[in-house]
## 1
Amino acid sequence: MIPISDPKSQLDTIQDELLKELKDVLKSGQYILGSRVSDLERTIAKRLGTAEAIGVGNGTDALILTLNAYGIGKGDEVITTPFTFFATAEAITRVGATPVFADVDQRTFNIDPSKIEDKITDVTKAILPVHLFGQPAAMGEINQIAKKHHLYVIEDACQAFGATYKGNQAGALGDAACFSFFPTKNLPTIGDGGMITTSDPKLAKRIRSLRAHGSYKKYHHNEIGYNSRLDEIHAAVIATCLNYIDQWNDHRRHLASRYDDALREIPFIRRPYRDLDSTHVYHLYCVESDQRDEFRNALTKQNISTGVYYPRCLHLQKAYEHLGYKLGDFPIAESLSEKLFALPLYPGLLLEEQDYIIERIKRQVSE
Ligand SMILES: Cc1ncc(COP(=O)(O)O)c(C=O)c1O
């Protein structure tokens, strides 16, 4: 079966380097918040063009810690997209605030800036756009709205390491940004890991404290925090992968262009839109079709995996029943949840395998 994504095939290509790094960590005796984490933080901040980067336990914690460090909590609202992984909104709820959804853009699948202003109230504190599937949200417009209404902009860049918007890196496009190094992400580790980037030193200082039980100095706790640190072992893996991220992202874009070319003439399938302001890193390559189930069933029979991201919008999740949303509130997001599906795309996907997938899609259309 050709999978949708395959972290193992990606990491296999650098296995010797990784094994050496893992051995070095083991031998170092330093496993938590050591020099590998601080080196990686410096490297990532420099690469993205932010003053600070702070390693944390995972992408969800990155969002929670950032919201918490901004003092966002009970009684506050944060505007975000209903079409994302659950963790985006979950983090808002976890700090005690309320996620307020705004519908997405039909072409980019990202939050539609023209739908944001209507949602702003006296208690809105932040806008939390997601760079979905690896393509940055319309950050120019979003930042303008935020500035006008004195709101923070927190990027959910969990799917977009290496993506750019108007020449700037995802992660340096708002006030703070959150990354995930979950194994299927563009920049992976072999477990959980996360990072926050920001150029606000006060925010960074508070996040550094929050990630380690609210402690500024060992055994001195100024506030109730979390235990959410990036482990040395993950910092070592991420630092090694970072040497290959440009190559991997280029290859993802190459595969995406090959799908784009091949699917151009295919009826019943709409290819993902490429925003000219951005470089997309194709964490996922999602196409839209009214005949999603037919395509997916046919491809499964030919040993080709496909995936649905995301089959249920966040405003329709049981966990958010209490917010009182209903079907029809966000028609574009709802329609995407019924029509989008992802084709296999990952650095280890062979061109012959991709040709086979394309040939099978064409055959399904002609049958
Ligand atoms: C858009 C988005 N936000 C947040 C997360 C949460 O990241 P993690 O799984 O590292 O907690 C993910 C990934 O799973 C994601 O895709």
Note: The mean pLDDT is 97.
## 2
Amino acid sequence: MQQLTVNLDDRSYPIHIGSGLLGQVELLAPHIAGRQVCIVTDDTVAPLYLQRLCQTLADYAVVPVVLPTGEAFKNWSTLQQIFDALLAARHDRRTTLIALGGGVIGDMTGFAAACYQRGVDFIQIPTTLLSQVDSSVGGKTGINHPAGKNMIGAFYQPKAVLIDTDSLRTLPAREVSAGLAEIIKYGLIRDRQFLDWLEQHMPALRELEPALITEAIARSCAIKAEVVAADEREGGVRAILNLGHTFGHAIEAHQGYGNWLHGEAVGAGMAMALELSQRLGWLSEAEQQRGVTLIAAAGLPVTPPRGMLGEDFKRLMAVDKKVLDGQLRLVLLKQMGEAVVTADFDGQALHSMLAVAGR
Ligand SMILES: NC(=O)c1ccc[n+]([C@@H]2O[C@H](COP(=O)([O-])OP(=O)(O)OC[C@H]3O[C@@H](n4cnc5c(N)ncnc54)[C@H](O)[C@@H]3O)[C@@H](O)[C@H]2O)c1
Ligand SMILES: [Zn+2]
């Protein structure tokens, strides 16, 4: 088992990574203050892992909440079901919420924990590759609004993150690729050597070779933890974690939440960020191509959806959370392994790139 720490003073918390962790009550018990536990999961994950986790927590009064699966349900009315269950079972302020599932469940459970009785403890048990390397770490929680993704939410850190790599065995290949998008992101923004390593091992990573996938998860979590510790509330450097996401969120919103997976949209969005960085003269064509090839090798799209035009991007990107005082800021690459967040780029280069999008 590997252990990392997200360093946030008195709100610091551990990330445990390894095989068989779902059965280890000793990893959970130190982070559960009372007897009441509410496990939030979805109807895809519940038949796979809920019983196992309930057995592990046999000494607690556990209330399971099984939500409908998918991004399309990351909204107010689904969130309400968590509060309904907590109140029906009379959970008090010492209750602990446990998110068992992918990023949708993690984001909603975290937000519910931030709101319920003005804040109760929660633990992340991410079961998708994407949630294990990204969404379970860092404390961004929330739901979607029809006008924009993750527009309603809170920064709220978990007490612990438990990553059981065994849970990846049931994950569809398409979801594995979606998780690899965020893993590639860490290499592109922060770690050139990790990028080399990913190029070398991509086929085995797609097959979830245990030692390699554990290493990829640990390196990704280490980078995320470091960036979050430096800038928890995204006043600065944390925004680099959004490489490809401004374009990607626009793609997700345009296609309807859930049709393109988040990771797929980020794959295409990172390819667009690589292209724009090249158009601006910051990357060579060879570097751009190298990045795009790696994204494609992970089984991800590298072009925007057909029919999504430049004006669609502009309209949807205008609500991005990185827009400040009406100015669009983008995460771009100064070089491979080094990202910047900037509004200071040639708008014409963006315009030219978007002019040929979706055709
Ligand atoms: N909070 C953050 O910092 C952050 C970062 C990145 C992404 N996100 C959010 O995360 C969400 C995407 O997360 P996701 O990709 O995990 O999506 P998801 O939660 O929808 O899970 C993907 C699918 O896999 C299923 N699943 C989960 N675990 C499984 C398993 N072990 N075996 C088989 N099937 C399993 C789910 O039921 C679902 O159908 C988006 O809403 C995105 O906005 C948040
Ligand atoms: Zn993401």
Note: The pocket of nicotinamide-adenine-dinucleotide (ligand 1) is lined by residues 42, 44-45, 48, 69-71, 74, 101-105, 107, 127-128, 130-131, 134-135, 138, 140, 150, 167, 170-171, 175, 178, 262-263 (CB under 6 Å).
